[in-house]
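Annex B. Sample input.
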Amino acid sequence: MPIAVDIDVMLAKRKMSVGELAERVGITPANLAVLKNGRAKAVRFTTLAALCEVLECQPGDLLRWEPTGPGAWAPGPGDAGRAGTGARGIGSRGAEEGQRPG
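Annex B, continued. Sample output.
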């Protein structure tokens, strides 16, 4: 799956167990394990927000896009910090900087 989940990294940084995180977020340890191991097909924004609140991080600290297959996108020199958005950014559809997408 091209979306990688880095909950383990944040758990290690915060010295927190899976059980403690699940309890504080309000989800079952089994559901957290599904998410943590990359087997989830979706995640609710409310769950993502709760994870970020408890772990004191941003969504990008927990989720990242990994390109797959031939011709997969790779960040260029000017794309630092924009992994997964391509050169134009999310939803820009070619709009110039400072203009609203049309």
